[in-house]
Each structure stands twice: as structure tokens, then as C-alpha cells.
Amino acid sequence: MTLFFTFDDTEISCAETDSLAAALTQAGYRAFRKTEKDAQRGVFCGMGVCQDCLVTVDGRPNQRACMTPARDGMVVQTQVARPPLTAPAQVLRRAQKLTPDVLIVGGGAGGLSAAIAAREAGAEVVLLDERKVPGGQYFKQSGDPRATPLDTQQASGKALVEAALTAGTRILAQTEVWGAFDGPQIMATAPDAVYAIAPRTLIIATGAYERPLMIPGWTLPGVMTVGAAQTLWRSYRTLPGKRVALFGNGPLVAQVALELADGGADVAVLAEAAAAPWRRAPAALDMMRRDPALARKGIAMLANLRRKGIRARHDTLPSEIRKTEKGLHVRYVQGGAERSVTVDAVCLNFGFQPQNEILRLLGADMQYDPRFDHLRVTRSRTCETSVSNVFSIGDCSGLGGAPAAMVEGRIAGRAAAGAPPVPQDHDNLERHRAFQQALWRVYSADLPRPEDITPETHVCRCEEVTKAELDAALADDPTDIGALKRATRIGMGRCQGRYCAPVVAGIMARRLGKPLEDLSYFAPRIPIKPVDIAAITAAETLLDQEDG
Is the omega angle on the peptide bond into residue 184 within 30 degrees of 0, that is, cis? Predict the structure, then answer.
């Protein structure tokens, strides 16, 4: 079925299963909102983290286009920097208290596996997921439940979702967690409900989001993460542009390049920051030994790219993106030589950051991992954190890959339900972790340091704070990251520092000569995601009833 809505008074048609972001991208629109400094923004993360694709829908501002399903008759407008204060009446939501045996936050590879394991052990399970269809970033399900899966990976994800439902898991889709308290107790909001959830045990499986490379132009409309481009294609069969360039570090970049090429895109550049894999033969052979099937899948992917005339350019990094009449002009350095290309869309992925805000709010112990420049959760053999009855699985705990996340899900699901462990699960987990270690060695690359960001480049895309402004504040020798935040507003935007915090924390720690730790980052605060006042009021009513 085709539906129609308007965007700035222009009629747009799309499939009934599209998101607004997919429908607008398909129609040729890249810019969705204006910033305080009159800059344009569009889709960037594609998963509701960056808050940059905001539009006004039927008079309601601050709606994320990537997470908002298109509806017939919608009136969508470009969001201005400061929407009118006379907002329409808030959406009425029912308030509901839930007390399941096991609550799982995140419906990706790990969360779904945990749900199945916990249900098989006899526990009552509720799973919360922000997306309309669970599956997470790895399995990325189609927005159309009738669509034929694109490949075995998407088909496996569909089967996993069906297995979780068949097992009796209660899945609450389009449900976003915005608060976490001792107990544990979770506050979440759905389109028609507000939940206060007090489970016996809690499993956090929120995954990770992508790291960009902060270069001039990385905030321009049409510049997005590799994962956002993959979501547009895999979930909505929408290409990010007819002609695309992909820059990054890791196998996801090549995988998405092949998927977009199969979808009809002209992949002008596929750039990898690491050296060619044959220059790291021992690590590549170790990958083959650890998981021959997965290694062969990677080799077949590279062969398919070559058959399409697409060869990865190794030792290559982008240096600048500019908007021109012909598109986005990208300058990049390949093996020391400067080159350039003009495309419709630029896709970036230089690693991942764990989505650990809930775990930090609950006080879970974390250690800094210098290899990946992120915090890694301290866990027991059953994936339980330092907080009693709170488990953490998958990439939110520290990067480990989807296969390992699924095994961790089975281990944590059984433990959370009070069932004994399965020894084979731990054996499989060690095998997956060993494969991942070899993979990281193959893709090891010397990436630019935060200190090397150019003065004109935005470090905080929400508050539009440049590296020059950051350096000026650092000249006053602030004693902690909070003082820097107050001086510059860096990290005060809607994304709450998810992109700028790791950069600033690293710079501050090195300046002060201190090791990075949990307290080096901006303190997590409630709400961890933007939420309207009506949802908070409804949640307070639930809590008051409980106290009474």
C-alpha cells in the first residue's frame, strides 16, 4: 500500500512500512532541520542516538525521522532551530507497572538470545526494543514483515525474532528507556504507554553506536554512518544516494558497500584505514583456524566486490567534505597521496562506542579499555555486573561482535532465570572471542588522535562547538570535564555527549596526566533520551502509587 504525506507543503509518497527518514531520502531530501547557527542537518546515525534528523510532525517538534513511521496524511516540516513554545497537547499515554522475572533492554542478537534462554528456563520475560521490528543493528530486519529477507543474515535474524515470540517473550517494540534507578527499576515510554518496570533480574543488551571521523564537513546532510546507510537499504530498500563513498575501519564497511552495490548504487570509493589483509597473514590465518565458515564468508564478500569492479583502497582516510552544486566533494589521502571524489552520500565508520548509559546510571563497575578507547563493563562468568541482579551482554559491555553476543545472551538468560549454565556455551564464547581478536588484528589501523582534529571542525555536533572553541576553553586549564562542559556547552545537546564525550575525555585525561576511567566522562543523567513532560508525569504517578 502506498501512503501520502507532505513535507514543507510538497506531497511525498512512500510504502506504508517506511520510516520518515527513508521516505524523505527516497524522495531526494537530505536536510531535515536547521541548527542555531543556521546549518542544516539530516540523517546521521539512523538509530535514534544522534538526534540530528529531527522534524516537526503534525505540529509536534523534535520527532526523529529515523524512528518515526510514516503515516498517511502526516504534515511534516523542516524543524527550525527553536520550535514555537505553543506546542500542541501532549499525547495521552496509559501508565502501566510491570514486574517480570526477567527484563531485557535491547532486541538485537544478544537480547533475543537471552529472551529465548530465559523463557526455556521457565522465567516470565519482557523485552524492550526501540525499533518497530526487533533484530538490532546486526540483523536489521525489514520494516515490511512480508518482505523476503535479503540474505541469510537477515533471514537468521527473522528466525530469531520468531523464536523469541514462539517461546513466549513479551516484546514491547518502539519502547524507549529514559530512566534507570536502583532496584533495579526501569522507566520507558512507548507511543501509547509509559512503563515503570521492576524486574527480579535485568539484562542490558543495548549494543553500540558508530564512531565517525571528526573532519571538516562530517555534520553535513548526506554524511552518515555506514550503519545508517545499511538501515536505509536493509530495512526500507532505500539507497542513501545513487553515488556513494564509504570510508572506515573494519569489515562492516566492505559488507555495506557490497549490499549497496547489489541494490544498484554506484560505489565510487570503498576506503579502508587498515593495511591490506594479506600484509597481516598470521592474523588472517588465525581467523581461518578459529571460524573457517565466517572467514570464508569474508573472502567471498571481497571476491564479489571485485567482480563488481569495486576494490578496497587500503591505508586511506578522508580529510575533508564540502558541499558543492554537484554533491558532496570528499578529499582523502590514500597511501600518502591526496585524491578526491564527488558523491551523493558519504558513509563513515571508524569503530563503535558501547551504549552503556543505563549501566552507568545503575553504578556498574567499568574499566577503560585503551585498545578501543572505551569503557568495558566488569562482569562475572555469567555476565552479571557488579550490581546485583543486573547483567550486561553484547557490545554495550565492550565490543565483542554479534556471534559472541548471542552466546553471552544464552549464558545470561539462563543465569537470570536461575538455571544452571551449559558448559558448551562458555567453550563457544571463547572461540568467538578468539576469532574477534584475530579480526581486530587484521583491521588494526593508526587512526587520527582527537588532538589532531582541525580547528574549524565541530567536536560537538549538537551545540556546534568547534575544536578551536574547545582548545580556547582548555587554555584556561579546567580541572575536570564538568568544568569544560559549563564553559563551552559541549555535551549539553540532545544526544548528551555520545559523540563528543569520548573525544573530550581523552584529551582531558592526557592533559592532566591521569588515566581514563568512568568519572572521566560526562556524568549520565536522567532522562538518558529526550522524553516529553507527559511521560515523566505519568511515570511519577506510577511511582507515587507504589510509595502509597
Answer: yes
Confidence (pLDDT) at 346: 98
User: For the chain (length 548 residues), average pLDDT per consecutive 10?
Assistant: 96 96 97 96 96 94 95 97 71 86 98 98 98 94 89 95 98 96 95 94 98 97 98 97 98 97 98 91 88 88 95 97 97 96 98 96 94 93 98 96 97 98 95 93 93 96 96 90 91 93 90 86 89 80 64
The string over 212-251, giving b where at least 16 C-beta atoms fall within 10 Å of a residue's C-beta and e elsewhere, is bbbbbbbbbbbbbbbbbbbbbbbbbbbbbbebbbbbbbbb
User: Is the domain defined by 2-78 classed in CATH 3.10.20.440?
Assistant: yes
Q: For residues 62 and 153, what is the distance between their CA atoms, to the nearest angstrom?
A: 33
Per the structure block, which three cell numbers stand in for 243? 553515488
Q: What is the CA radius of gyration of the chain?
A: 22
Domain extent listing, the chain: 2-78, 95-209+353-416, 214-225+235-349, 450-516
The fold of the 95-209+353-416 domain, in CATH, is: FAD/NAD(P)-binding domain (3.50.50)
Beta carbons within 8 Å of 28's beta carbon, 6+ residues apart: none
Apex 443 CA angle, 440 and 447, nearest 5: 105
CATH number for the domain formed by residue range(s) 214-225+235-349:
3.50.50.60
Distance CA 451, CA 277 (A): 28
Integer CA distances (angstroms), 119 to 96, 114, 124, 215, 418, in order: 22, 9, 6, 47, 11
Residue 167 in grid coordinates: 517461546
- Helix or strand run (H / E) with residue 179: strand 176-181
524 upstream amide cis, omega within 30 of 0: no
Return the pLDDT at 291.
87
Give buried/exposed letters for 527-536 (b at 16+ CB in 10 A, else e). bbbebbeebb
> pTM for the complete prediction?
0.95
Cα separation, 490 vs 488, in Å, equals 5
